[in-house]
From TrEMBL:
The name this protein goes by in its record: MFS transporter, YQGE family, putative transporter
InterPro entries to which the protein is assigned, alphabetical: MFS_trans_sf (IPR036259)
Membrane spanning stretches: 26-49, 61-81, 88-107, 113-131, 152-175, 187-207, 228-253, 265-283, 295-328, 364-384, 390-412
Tagged with keyword Methyltransferase: no
Keyword annotations of the record: Membrane, Transmembrane, Transmembrane helix
Amino acid sequence: MTITALLKKPSEEYQYFLNKPREMRVLLVTNMIYAFVLPVIEIFVGAYIMRSSNDPKIVAVYQLTVYTGIPITFLLNGFLLSRIKISTLYSFGMLLSGLSMLVMMSLQNLSVAGVGIAGILMGCSFGFFWSNRDLLALNTTNDYNRNYYYGLETFFYTITFILVPVIVGAFLSTADSRGWFGGNMHSGYQIVTIVVFLLTILSSVVIHKEKFKNPEEKKFLYIKFHSLWKKMLGLAGLKGLAQGYLVTAPAILIMRMVGNEGSLGLVQGVSGVVTALMLYLLGRTTKPEHRIYIFSAGLAIFLLGTLVNGILFSAFGVMVFVLCKVLFQPLHDIAYFPIQMQVIDVVSKIEKRNKFTYIFNHEFGLYIGRFLGLGLFIAFATYISESFALKYSLIVIAVVQLASIPLARHIVRESYKLQKS
């Protein structure tokens, strides 16, 4: 199958989607709607803080508090799963993200304390969203259809990360240039926030169209784990290391080197729909044994982007970096998540534990990586210079990420070996 063939047969692809289990389809539709929210949260909240404070360290503090709220909420969610429906917790997380943005927009002055509170709230929303999303994805898919599941989900995430920044960026830029809202950009951000909140309500309604089962085993807190899971935590730490930078550096680079939020949307849009179609095609046609190749390709593209940015450190260099980032993240995720799910399937069966145990534990591996990544950025920006943090530390992160390739290959081989034994 090629991209051309894919475009000629949309009805066949829709029928292929309808042939998947209903639980999987409801979850995918919910995530597709929420996919329109994530770009606003991940890109424009950082840009809003940067515009209002002109201090990249406050942006980093916001992200650090977001990442602190996530594992705390994973822990809380583990206890709540024994009492509250998983779909209710999932929808609450989506609604809370809109509420967090409303809190941010209500702040008169962006102090460290105010931004920190908004960040914790956003972290809690992500915690409820991602913990339940991962558990639902794990329970409604299997190793054979996960490439398709994550391919389709990533297809929509990529499309929205292209379209939403263009639309929102154009709206904010037009409002600024034409003096809408009395020249008050704050009002423009408030309108965007209201739209985001309405989308979270819609996605919350959809997820309740299906009855999803909560874990039967209530206990999820453990200290000792199988050696394979410890290796998976190492891979999670490396993934988190890159995440710590990629939610902070792009917005700052764009604002410093390229221009306003309109440019931010334009740069994201340059990658085009072809990228998203390619990701869908990969999910539709590839098999589990192809995941390492996709994983490696994503990391190579990320390294290329950081090198171009570091060498040129110009508007063009930033555009190349963001284009590489747009391609790297979905390629990485379309391979990473099925690998993680496969390991959880294998290890939970061996250790006879609640699968949420590993989803919760996995988040701490990510958190350590994110904390180190953001901490490194703050340290470089504070004690050396902001330009050094934006130029060279990204290259260091990309080089370190290459260690993920042999580790992921070993994890995949060992998981299938244990599955067969």
